[in-house]
Write a structure and sequence with these properties.
The chain has 7 helices and 16 strands. By secondary structure, it is α+β, with helices and mostly antiparallel strands. The chain folds into 3 domains: about 110 residues, FlgT, N-terminal domain (Dodecin subunit-like); about 190 residues, 3-Layer(aba) Sandwich (Rossmann fold), CATH 3.40.50; about 90 residues, Beta Barrel (Thrombin, subunit H), CATH 2.40.10. The strands form 4 sheets. The chain has a 6-stranded antiparallel β-barrel. A 5-stranded mixed beta sheet has the order 5-4-8-9-10, covered by helices on one side. InterPro entries: FlgT_C, FlgT_C_sf, FlgT_M, FlgT_N, FlgT_N_sf. Keywords: Cell projection, Cilium, Flagellum, Signal. This is Flagellar assembly protein T, N-terminal domain.
């Protein structure tokens, strides 16, 4: 009896979430972390609190989109896909800790799922595909101390892992793929005729929705050892002389998010951290090794990676899901996304034609044209789906490499 009552209460709660005239807030527990700066503890706490609030909003979206209760078409929560990051209110701090130069704040907050993105129609739980690419060093010599050059590929692996923990993103580790031309100018590129652009070429070939890239602007230690023989006394002095900060190094990282269907730059952001680097200046520590993560610099880098992952999710969670058309036949259309991406029979997607224009140098530029027609899915496989149009595909001139969008 108690189980039945609990189930009915759960169902009633979910019903109220669907009614715009009723309260639609859920209580979410979340934790945010940030580097702890002794000189400004208030700012450190505020940053951790902000990230906890962002995580609460994301978790509310994931919780609701993952809830499945269908009742013969009356209550179809199974098809509900929240496309908003909710408004966070009534924040209560329940735990706060400072450990290893990092502050951690845990909160319980009310997330109003009726507020957020202006397009809150049912489709956010679809898994968007991202490729995390190479992060080149603007000055490769910055990585000589500790032999950390592998960070250029390793950041992609760590970011992909963080993003994979989200149920709405399929993050691919493409650390060996360098889409940055000149890192000193990125994301701006100088074209041969002298024109400046932030648009990437040939992005559709990567078969993902977004391309994540960036540049490591700096990773230099505050003290750079010169070409001398190791001196134990001098090295020990510099290691323990905290006032001179011989043992610290910086990380300055620029993040770029490009739309892979058009090559357009959607977002860019800079991250800056300073942390201790206590390893011997001649030691070959290597990026991602146990010795690296034991360093305060490595430990603080973890929080930066989490912050980058959170910001990517905040930028893209409200973006519509997009997939490529791979084949057409009469009214039938096949697309490059399936059940693993959250699609199921009955879903309706808007059909867009992708027109290719060429500039004076024969470089392609892409334009998306809404056909004002929908594709209704009839069959889904793990990696592809098939659906039908209300008119013949030839009438709309729909063909391979056109796209569908879930608005």
């Amino acid at each position: 009896m108690k189980q039945l009552a609990a189930a009915l209460l759960h169902l009633l709660t979910l019903t109220l979430l669907l009614l715009p005239s009723q309260a639609s807030a859920v209580s979410i527990e979340a934790t945010g972390q940030a580097p702890y700066v002794e000189e400004d503890p208030g700012l450190s706490r505020q940053q951790a609190l902000q990230r906890a609030m962002e995580q609460a909003s994301i978790r509310a979206s994931a919780w609701l989109s993952g809830t499945r209760q269908a009742r013969d078409g009356v209550l179809e929560i199974d098809t509900l896909r929240l496309s908003t990051l909710g408004k966070v209110s009534n924040v209560r701090v329940i735990d706060e800790q400072v450990r290893d130069d990092q502050i951690s704040v845990t909160i319980i907050a009310d997330v109003d799922i009726a507020q957020g993105c202006k397009d809150s129609l049912p489709q956010t739980a679809y898994r968007k595909s991202l490729a995390i690419t190479h992060f080149p060093l603007e000055n490769p010599a910055d990585a000589n101390n500790g032999q950390l050059h592998e960070i250029q590929q390793g950041l992609a692996t760590l970011l992909a892992y963080e993003l994979q923990r989200s149920s709405t993103f399929e993050a691919l580790d493409a650390g060996n793929l360098n889409i940055i031309g000149d890192p000193t100018q990125a994301p701006v590129r100088l074209l041969p005729e002298g024109t400046l652009t932030t648009i990437l070429n040939n992005t559709p070939q990567h078969q993902v929705q977004y391309l994540i890239s960036g540049v490591i602007r700096g990773m230099a230690p505050h003290y750079t050892p010169g070409p001398r023989e190791p001196n134990v006394l001098v090295d020990l002095y510099r290691q323990f002389d905290r006032e001179q900060r011989f043992h610290q190094r910086d990380l300055v990282l620029d993040l770029f998010i490009h739309d892979a269907f058009t090559g357009a730059l959607k977002h860019q952001q800079r991250y800056h951290m300073t942390a201790d680097w206590n390893a011997d200046s001649h030691a070959k520590v290597g990026f991602g090794t146990p010795q690296f993560w034991q360093q305060p610099f490595g430990q603080q880098l973890r929080s930066v990676i989490r912050a980058v992952s959170n910001d990517i999710q905040l930028q893209l969670t409200c973006e519509p899901f997009t997939a490529r058309i791979t084949r057409t036949r009469d009214k039938e259309v096949w697309i490059s996304a399936g059940s693993l991406d959250g699609l199921k029979p009955g879903d309706r997607l808007s059909v867009y034609r992708r027109l290719t224009h060429y500039d004076g140098q024969m470089r392609p530029e892409y334009e998306l044209i809404n056909t004002e027609h929908n594709l209704t899915l009839t069959q889904t496989q793990p990696s592809f789906s098939k659906g039908t149009l209300d008119v013949d595909s030839e009438t709309l001139n729909i063909q391979q490499d056109d796209i569908v969008i879930a608005h």
